Amino acid sequence: MSNIRPIRGEELDLIHFLLEKLNLDPIDFPVSEMVDEYEGGKMGSISLGGDVNGYAGDLIQAEYVDIDDTPVVITLTQDTNGQLLDLDFWKVDFTKLLEYPTPDKLIFGKTPEE
Description:
Layout: E1 4-6, H1 9-21, E2 34-37, E3 46-47, E4 55-65, E5 71-79, E6 84-91
Antiparallel strand pairs: 1-2, 2-3, 3-6, 4-5, 5-6
């Protein structure tokens, strides 16, 4: 079931931060004002309105440790048209995201096994 809602400021801030980390200008990657939550928003994943049938890969991946000390993998993806597709969250124990990450809490270049 679809759960369409307005994008939150913290989500937009995170997307812009990830794009800037890649030296990409957020202006070149417009984000819809409305997003579709996956899994009712349990883990925080949202569809950004790209072509859901045209996944073209991950742009960037980061890790975040939720306040219950559980690792969360965050991935920004794109579609075959070069548009943003998803901001995907995967909490390794599949539980609900307890605190939304801020850019200063992201970890880059580390895998969950480390």
